[in-house]
């Protein structure tokens, strides 16, 4: 990969200006309600300078320090998923004409070009999985595709993994290797900037980049290695489908169900979960209705409702279904695990249930380790 240069911190605002001149609205991380949230930004002053996160199972705390860096945290509850797979959207509308005839119309917005700043390697890995699901199957999802085509990605390598992160063990981080337009490595004095696409090359040509010094590259290498070494959680690599399905009667499923609230928070924050439900909303005049899609969760009772029967009545069945699909049958569908090691489901579970701990308890000393 080319290394075009170094962008001093005082000139980081130029990146937003170059993106805006190129026609992009900029979305970036901000500190909101004590967490990192992605929203439209107009200035680098809105980025979370000095913010550091202390994340543990069921607990997220932000601290604002005097340090200059914008990206000294790992992730927030969401990143790319809601920008591409909308939490709630109208897919089509139907209206009744004067003679009673029905007219259907698709509802696909034309999104404005959007540059997302601060994307992490786990987000890029999750995006590849969502692309597989929404774009590369037998039918492409036009609502997802429209937003995907409008996206430009400015990735940042992680230097501060959370206690809940384990992307190194799933092979999805903490370094971003592919799938971005620009990649940043943050130092106190500025950013090493590398292009990852033709668009990225063009953007680099418009930035006031300086030659990168050897000592700056050395600091970047050290920070990357330190980020890998800082991760203590692990998940067994490879296809766990047989190992998990063979243990469908394991007592641990009932034990975890005693703590699990079946709230679905883990699935809402997970960047790879894509379960959804659809329903029609009729207008009160009876002349039109909208067909709406919204995020659902395999932890809801309705998600396994089929012809008068809830298939997964008990919480232990729902937790088992989520874990076995995510780490097992996902391999059969998409050729890899559905977990990219971001740790969000651990941090944002209100009772601190830890996917790594649960897998370890179910598999025991099985030789899949
Ligand atoms: S299962 Fe948990 S750790 Fe894995 S990708 Fe989803 S939220 Fe992240
Ligand atoms: S594992 Fe945690 S976040 Fe997921 S449904 Fe159970 S209580 Fe909610």
Can you put this structure into words, describing what you see?
It is a single chain. The protein has about 375 residues and is of the alpha+beta class. The chain has two domains: about 5-230, no CATH class; about 240-365, no CATH class. About 30% of the residues lie in helices and about 25% in strands. The strands form four sheets. The chain has a seven-stranded mixed sheet. It has a four-stranded antiparallel sheet with strand order 7-6-13-12, with no helix packed on it. A two-stranded antiparallel ribbon has the order 4-5. Strand 4 (about 50-55) and strand 5 (about 60-65) form a beta hairpin. Helix 9 crosses helix 11 (about 315-335). The longest helix has 20 residues, at about 315-335. The model has no long low-confidence stretch (mean pLDDT about 95). It binds iron/sulfur cluster (SF4) (2 copies).
Q: Would you count the extended β strands for me?
A: 15
Intertermini distance: 34 Å
Sequence of strands across the biggest β-sheet: 1-11-10-9-8-2-3
Please provide the ordered H/E string of secondary-structure elements. Answer: EHEEEEHEEEHHEHEEHHHHHEEEEHHH
Number of helices: 13
Main sheet record: 7 strands, mixed
User: What is the average of the pLDDT values?
Assistant: 95
Radius of gyration, taken over Cα atoms and rounded to an integer in Å: 22 Å
Percent in strands: 15-25%
Helix content: 25-40%
């Amino acid at each position: 990969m080319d290394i075009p240069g170094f962008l001093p911190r005082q000139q980081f605002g130029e990146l937003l200006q170059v993106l805006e001149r190129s026609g992009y609205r900029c979305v970036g991380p901000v500190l909101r309600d004590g967490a990192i949230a992605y929203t439209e930004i107009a200035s680098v002053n809105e980025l979370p300078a000095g913010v550091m996160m202390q994340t543990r199972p069921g607990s997220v705390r932000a601290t604002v320090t005097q340090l200059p860096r914008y990206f000294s945290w790992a992730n927030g509850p969401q990143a790319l998923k809601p920008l591409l797979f909308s939490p709630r959207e109208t897919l089509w509308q139907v209206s009744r004409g004067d003679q009673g005839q029905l007219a259907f119309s698709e509802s696909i917005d034309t999104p404005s070009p959007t540059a997302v700043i601060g994307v992490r390697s786990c987000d890029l890995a999750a995006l590849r999985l969502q692309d597989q699901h929404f774009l590369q199957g037998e039918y492409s999802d036009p609502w997802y595709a429209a937003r995907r085509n409008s996206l430009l990605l400015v990735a940042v390598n992680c230097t501060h993994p959370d206690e809940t992160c384990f992307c190194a063990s799933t092979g999805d981080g903490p370094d971003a290797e592919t799938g971005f337009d620009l990649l940043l490595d943050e130092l106190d004095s500025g950013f090493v900037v590398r292009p990852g696409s033709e668009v990225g090359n063009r953007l680099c040509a418009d930035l006031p980049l300086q030659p990168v010094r050897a000592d700056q590259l050395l600091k970047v290498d050290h920070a990357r290695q330190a980020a890998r070494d800082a991760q203590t959680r692990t998940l067994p690599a490879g296809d766990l489908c047989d190992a998990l399905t063979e243990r469908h009667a394991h007592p641990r499923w009932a034990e975890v169900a005693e703590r699990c609230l079946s709230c679905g928070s883990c699935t809402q924050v997970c960047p790879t979960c894509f379960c959804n439900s659809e329903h029609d909303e009729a207008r009160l005049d009876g002349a039109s209705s909208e067909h709406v899609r919204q995020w659902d969760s395999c932890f809801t009772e309705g998600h396994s409702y089929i012809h008068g029967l809830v298939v997964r009545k008990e919480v232990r069945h729902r937790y088992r279904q989520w874990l076995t699909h995510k780490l097992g049958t996902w391999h059969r569908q998409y050729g890899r695990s559905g977990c990219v090691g971001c740790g969000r489901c651990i941090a944002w579970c209100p009772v601190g249930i830890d996917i790594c701990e649960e897998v370890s308890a179910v598999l025991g000393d099985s030789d899949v380790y």
